[in-house]
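Subject: for your reference before the review

Hello V.,

The reviewers asked for a structural picture of the protein, and I figured it would be easier to keep everything in one thread rather than splitting it across files. Below is the amino acid sequence we used in the manuscript, unchanged from the supplementary table.
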Amino acid sequence: MLFASPLVLAAQPEPGAAPAEAALETSGQRPVSPPVQTDDSGREVRPDGPDDAAKLTNVPRSDRPDPSWTLSFEPVAWWASPSGKIRLPGQTSGGDQVRVERLNLDSPQLSPGGEIHINADRWRFTFSAADNSVDASSFADSTIRLGDMVIAPAETYRSSIDLFFAELTAGFRIYRREFALEPSQEILPALLSLHLIAGAQLVDVDIEVQRTLGGRAGAEETFIHPIGGVRADVELYRDFTIDVLLTAGGLDSSTSLDIVAGFQWRPHENLGVQIGWRQILYTVEEGEGTGLFEYEGGVAGLYGGVVIRF
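And here is what came back from the structure prediction:
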């Protein structure tokens, strides 16, 4: 009868042991644990999958794709007032340049507006429109010449202005970066995106002044010109967004500068609210001589509304 040596019994692997562990146990060595991974703050990180590497702070994920398509509707109410100087055309004589506030047309009014955005990967397509209308009655503090009409001092008159703006643009994202606001965080709560913008803008102007005793002067003109600019968006914690838009453009008879700064809060993935400031500066003119129409001014004010996104 054969007896196993104690040394031979000690070298036998335990039943059910993994081959690698068995080999190490056979050689008298213990398994070596994998190295511990830490983030920038020195805390231990145990990745459970391929996406966990993105939880490290200050790791850019600009190469991660956006959702393929998103569609958003943003109806707003714009509390704005016009400003500037107006010259109305005449048949026999040209009028003076008259400031908008002198015609009592600088009172802020609540007007409708809105935007539609389509995001397709790195592209962003936008259609936006806004209206601003003021109607007022007043009396002349001094002689006012508008086209062929002359309003004498202390004479009453009625004036109105209706401004409509519409833009159709396409934007291409040139920069995108996600980053942490605090080094101690394990998530990336902030996303910065920059888009180059190109498109066209429509400016429609309708101005009318009527004397109480009879007589009228006015103009209605529409201008379309190309625009270009840049848009910056900063998304915070997936729920808050700060956006800034700057566009400018023009042709021979019209120019414009559009500045928008807004803030959005989305308590729900598909629904949010927004508030911001918009200012449009423009110069439009049509005709020549006594028939010259000219308006150099702008519209500015606060806006607020809702955001519906799919």
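For the response letter, the relevant points are probably these. Residues 69-309 form a domain with the Lipocalin fold (CATH 2.40.128.90). The mean pLDDT is 83.

Happy to draft the paragraph if you're swamped.

O.
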